[in-house]
Amino acid sequence: MKKILNAPSDVVEEMMNGMAEAHKDLVHRVGNTRVIARNYAGKGKVGIISGGGSGHEPTHAGYVGKGMLSAAIFGDVFTSPTPDQVYEAIKAADQGAGVFMVVKNYTGDVLNFEMAKDLAEADGIDVAYTVTSDDVSGGESTYSDGRRGVAGTLFMHKILGYHAEHGATLKDLKEIAEAINPNLATIGLALSPATVPEQGTPGFTLKDDEIELGIGIHGEPGFEKASMMTSKKIAAVFYDKLNAHLKLTGEEELVVMVNGMGATPLMEQYVFVKDVFDLLKDKGITVAKSYVGDYMTSIEMAGLSLTFFKLDDARWLDALNAPVETIAW
Amino acid sequence: MKKILNAPSDVVEEMMNGMAEAHKDLVHRVGNTRVIARNYAGKGKVGIISGGGSGHEPTHAGYVGKGMLSAAIFGDVFTSPTPDQVYEAIKAADQGAGVFMVVKNYTGDVLNFEMAKDLAEADGIDVAYTVTSDDVSGGESTYSDGRRGVAGTLFMHKILGYHAEHGATLKDLKEIAEAINPNLATIGLALSPATVPEQGTPGFTLKDDEIELGIGIHGEPGFEKASMMTSKKIAAVFYDKLNAHLKLTGEEELVVMVNGMGATPLMEQYVFVKDVFDLLKDKGITVAKSYVGDYMTSIEMAGLSLTFFKLDDARWLDALNAPVETIAW
Amino acid sequence: MDLTLARQWMDAFFEDLKAHKDYLSELDNPIGDGDHGINMARGATAAQEALTQSPPETLNGLFKTIAMSLLSKVGGASGPLYGSVFLAFAKASLDQDTLDDKTLSQLFIDGKDALMNRGKATKGEKTMVDVWIPFSERFNQDPLTKEDVDAMVLATKPLKATKGRAAYLGDRSIGHIDPGSMSSGYLFKTFLNVRDHS
Amino acid sequence: MDLTLARQWMDAFFEDLKAHKDYLSELDNPIGDGDHGINMARGATAAQEALTQSPPETLNGLFKTIAMSLLSKVGGASGPLYGSVFLAFAKASLDQDTLDDKTLSQLFIDGKDALMNRGKATKGEKTMVDVWIPFSERFNQDPLTKEDVDAMVLATKPLKATKGRAAYLGDRSIGHIDPGSMSSGYLFKTFLNVRDHS
Ligand SMILES: Nc1ncnc2c1ncn2[C@@H]1O[C@H](COP(=O)(O)OP(=O)(O)O)[C@@H](O)[C@H]1O
Ligand SMILES: Nc1ncnc2c1ncn2[C@@H]1O[C@H](COP(=O)(O)OP(=O)(O)O)[C@@H](O)[C@H]1O
Ligand SMILES: [Mg+2]
Ligand SMILES: [Mg+2]
Ligand SMILES: [Mg+2]
Ligand SMILES: [Mg+2]
Fold first, then answer.
1. 63-92 of A, contacting B, C-beta below 8 A
2. Among A226, A301, B246, D133, which one has the highest count of C-beta atoms within 10 angstroms of its own C-beta?
3. How far is the CA of A123 from the centre of ligand 5 (A)?
């Protein structure tokens, strides 16, 4: 393992401190907790929080700021945060109107956030939450744990953050979140693995010409190992998977996100997004907006994910287009 | 070589098209040229252009937009653009007040931009330029080619872009550029190499526990191969190199940039910037602003660079703080 | 089983978790994210520290301290799950100085119920539930041995996961031992060991 | 040397560049960025295409077409440098139907001057200037052989670079052949070959 670190066990602490100090105009670390909160309070408005294991930077703290998240919780690398820390974020985010949690669908995340909700409610803070599950690599799983929350979650952050800033209640936000979730679909692939600093060895291995399709953001295996293929071919495979979920007719408007997993250069991401655009054009589908870059990473994993967000509601686009004051959006 | 591509020889074309289409609200490709220009014209103002080899994304096109660059030229990967293409950018950027070129100190870049200037002047367009040379890995070289232009160049883009937007003339910009350049100092390191798609094999090799200090953004060897060391130690080595050039007294205000080379996750970059902050605090030096992220990459090289920008002129900070409308700043 | 013995049990469990840290993570690699050992070892260390710092004076206090340590240190799925189990243990041992066989049996049943309540997993979904159900059910019937526990853990191998991270793998989860079941196995085996050697 | 022969020379040069594409890039790896072969081969292909598309009818036209192709296709340092060289060749052969030895000598001197003018490099800085100076100076004196050219190219090996990318290496540039000198060597050797076999 070759990484720029001091002690591997201190990596989350040190990263948090670096982040808070580098961007002190926007955010701060809450005491000694695993929480980074925005400086802008948003008095009287619902706070939006999110979090999960570390190693997905700039997710989540990169999206903390006016118009998006109120606070983010850092778990250990690839490990859900603990309930006491989520509760710290709830307290930091609460400005009198309650706190809405955006949880990605991982058993650990769901359980820990739920426990934090129990703790907060015992202290009289209203908490509601949504669980995103945009990953379609498992196909149409009938069991709830089969679909992970991945990069599409960021649209949830952005849109809920916009509405919270404009005075939405917990109930409003829950409704908006439930309307959004079925319109999100993401699929990813890996070319090379990530190494958790405390583990020191890669989470999986791939041969020289091998890729893993449908991989998760923690290196969870995908639906298929395949030989390296062209960008055009990957775009076609991904399109089919996303389409199987979204059932596109050609009438719809999409928001597209190509998300780099960490080590994949923008060069490849832009080559790929062009192939996606060409495919969508063939199908007659309109791209209303697109995002390309490292939004939700998997440490230094090489690979990318593709998210389609079907714009069932035209107001979602306005919410996406609104300015925010964050580190990384 | 495992990359998400179609034909390696088409990578620049395809990347440009992807970039232009993904961000069509901000930029467009100029015909079939190797130029991406901003949609905002800036009538009557000096245009600022920059460019170089591809493979440094989001540099340069990511910084094209209102308040920063007017246009960017894409050379082949790690290869200077040709004079005819630079000339296309000059034509696209010229809004009647001439064009200012920001050139990084590489023989190829300088020669090709100079030739383009000759071409443009023959057609009656006024052109001035500056050559940035912020890389201090060669020590205080007496020969002009010893110092490369690297990530510090981006502060030049930002500040000149701001002044151009506010009506500065070519002459003004040349003066500002010459005042800035000596206050920029950058030093980088690599943990693993980059592969130019058309070459297919890494540009250099490093052993499992080996790093290269002072590396350039094209994989040019640095001043020393060393064993892997802690982030704190790297910060100390880099500080000494930058200090040798800037001769810091402890009185000054700095802008700090930690720039990821491509494959190095933000996690490591934030750990490292914290060590830099701690060092600067010890020396009594104030950090006025800081940047952390992949600003000027070297395809999928792992590593980072550290830039100190000494704020000799307080107006530079205002220029840095001004908003821009670009893909990646 | 009194406080001293229960404390011995817990210490043996924590030592086992730390000793098998790498092994538990390795089990988590092919069907999870390779951190189960790290998570549990972190929790074990924290719990041991908490117990040393303010040694509990009751069985209830022992299990509660452990529950809070695991909750706040383990993270991942196993944190709240084991946390809930030990909260249930604490509840079941409230006002008890020693745990007789009947209370112990209830304790394991309550632990299993808390686990299933928190995690919503049922039998056969390839989670630690699949060792908690047989262990708590058979506890009162047979004289359970360490070999029995090993067999329960091993029985998770052919299962297809439909809960937890391993569920993302579908059929590819078949043929691997469930890491959480292995760590629960340590809990059961250290229990049998302490009980049988006292 | 008339147009036909000059065209043969140029074609031989381009074929050499393409044939040694990988070798030239390999030379550029340790002291540069490993693209000299790619750059020159790209230029060679472009020049050959341009020459096929509209075959030049004069020596001046031949060299000018090549200059423009290299300028617009090579990129890197070598693009404008070779571009300037061939622009100088074009100028030196203006209104000439054949190149006698005196004109040829002047042609190489003008090429060298254009190169030095554009690149600002002087003797001993480990650039192609270090083969252009001896070749153009000795052209009129000795009957130069391919072995002489090889020796000139090899003589760049012990030099320390102070111009171009290799300058970033300081002392570490010593001990490597300069790639641009190698490609210029191909230009000289194909010249000698075409001249001597006609
Ligand atoms: N819903 C659930 N109910 C019971 N146990 C579960 C559930 N989900 C996961 N587990 C257990 O948790 C173990 C994984 O724990 P761990 O690796 O620490 O957490 P994570 O999966 O978050 O990385 C699995 O082996 C399984 O036994
Ligand atoms: N200032 C200069 N004058 C003359 N030749 C130079 C100069 N700088 C570089 N060169 C030549 O250019 C060659 C490198 O060309 P190339 O690799 O194609 O370009 P780049 O260095 O931009 O990648 C060097 O080997 C050297 O011979
Ligand atoms: Mg985990
Ligand atoms: Mg080059
Ligand atoms: Mg795990
Ligand atoms: Mg080169």
1. 77
2. A301
3. 31
